[in-house]
């Protein structure tokens, strides 16, 4: 846990500069006003110039918390919660009982994670008062597609895909969107976007191949199933993105604007409903409970995992509420790179030169994607 906090602090500090640049845009009118005031005394011009600059927006006024402190708090919370979340997620699926049995009840895990998020979302909803007249059918579709995406990611881990590879692969969310556009026509993309996706996919493939050089045929077959789950997860991510856009459009037509905790509560409520139906139908509630009773260490890790998910989402909504959503995207995107590095450093993954080349290539693609969004903004 100490390594997680230390890495989270470093990561949040590195991200702070980039995110601040994104969050602060000085209007051109500020420059015009300063130019018009050149006849004022030099001291007054300096004070006016400071007040019109982006720096002034990060200085406490009247006891207010500086924006830089708010961002460091939000980014640090996101990093700490989700770095530990990823570490626990990997621990759950790498755990082997005394009899050699491994945890496979993924829907059981999704139920517990959704329960924690629903509770925190409900508390946030009570504190901020919920919005009436929301498009519940679309929220239900969004919740179902999101929990299916999460299930596929965890199922990939349960079927032998390593955490670093799964995390890097999940960063290629534009892949199914681009494929759909190429096949069906529609949106066009820049060369930089294609290069970013190619770097992520290529880097992930290089890392995976470097780890499979000495793998047994049976293990490689199982991992192939894991990669099919990753591909399915990316497809569900694309579906979720489209539904979320429709939620905003439909809400605007109804004259309502969902608040952050509206999204958290209702989305997770439908995720919980979907996960419960699958868990009951597949008998995973009983088997998952039995496994956790027999292996209390796993149960403790799952509870912490679910708590980190809820806390991390709260920090995400806090950051969204105080800054442009693009700032949050930058933080959550770069967090994945540090999650991969933390896993390699603490979980005993061994990479040869080829593997590290893949890590660098995929990380470069992730960073290019994040920073190109900032530039476009």
From TrEMBL:
Claim: Membrane is one of the keywords in the record: yes
Molecular function, one GO term: UDP-glucose transmembrane transporter activity
Residues crossing the lipid bilayer are 68-85, 106-130, 191-210, 222-243, 263-281, 302-321, 353-371
Q: Name one Pfam family in it.
A: UAA
Its annotated compartments are: Membrane
Its membrane topology is listed as: Multi-pass membrane protein
* GO CC entries: endoplasmic reticulum membrane; Golgi membrane
Which range is the signal sequence, renumbered to this chain?
A: 1-19
- For this UniProt record, give its keywords in alphabetical order, as a comma-separated list: Membrane, Signal, Transmembrane, Transmembrane helix, Transport
Q: What is this protein called?
A: Uncharacterized protein
Statement: the UniProt record of this protein carries the keyword Transmembrane:
yes
């Amino acid at each position: 846990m100490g390594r997680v906090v230390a890495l989270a602090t470093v990561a949040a500090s590195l991200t702070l500069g980039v995110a601040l640049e994104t969050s602060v845009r000085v209007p051109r009118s500020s420059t015009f006003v300063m130019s018009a005031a050149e006849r004022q005394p030099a001291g007054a011009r300096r004070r006016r110039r400071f007040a019109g600059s982006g720096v002034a927006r990060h200085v406490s006024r009247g006891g207010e918390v500086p924006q830089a402190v708010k961002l460091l708090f939000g980014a640090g919370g996101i990093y700490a919660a989700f770095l530990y979340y990823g570490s626990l997620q990997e621990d759950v699926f790498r755990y082997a009982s005394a009899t050699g049995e491994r945890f496979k009840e993924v829907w059981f895990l999704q139920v517990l994670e959704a329960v924690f998020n629903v509770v925190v979302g409900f508390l946030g909803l009570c504190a901020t008062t919920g919005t009436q007249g929301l498009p519940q059918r679309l929220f239900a579709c969004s919740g179902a597609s999101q929990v299916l995406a999460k299930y596929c990611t965890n199922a990939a881990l349960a079927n032998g895909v390593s955490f670093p590879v799964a995390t890097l692969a999940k960063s290629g969310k534009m892949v199914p969107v681009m494929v759909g556009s190429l096949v069906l026509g529609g949106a066009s993309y820049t060369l930089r976007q294609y290069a970013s996706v190619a770097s992520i996919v290529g880097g992930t493939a290089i890392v995976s191949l470097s780890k499979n050089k000495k793998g047994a045929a049976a293990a490689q077959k199982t991992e192939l199933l894991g990669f099919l789950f990753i591909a399915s997860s990316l497809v569900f991510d694309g579906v979720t993105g489209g539904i979320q856009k429709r939620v905003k459009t439909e809400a605007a037509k109804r004259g309502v604007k969902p608040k952050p905790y509206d999204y958290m509560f209702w989305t997770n409520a439908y995720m919980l409903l979907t996960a419960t139906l699958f868990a009951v139908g597949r008998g995973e509630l009983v088997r998952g409970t039995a496994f956790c009773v027999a292996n209390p260490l796993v149960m403790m890790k799952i509870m912490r995992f679910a708590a980190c998910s809820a806390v991390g989402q709260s920090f995400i909504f806090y950051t969204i509420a105080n800054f442009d959503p693009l700032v949050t995207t930058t933080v959550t995107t770069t967090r994945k790179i540090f999650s991969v590095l933390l896993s390699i450093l603490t979980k005993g993954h061994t990479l040869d030169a080829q593997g590290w080349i893949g890590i660098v290539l995929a990380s470069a693609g992730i960073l290019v994607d994040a920073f190109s969004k900032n530039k476009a903004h």
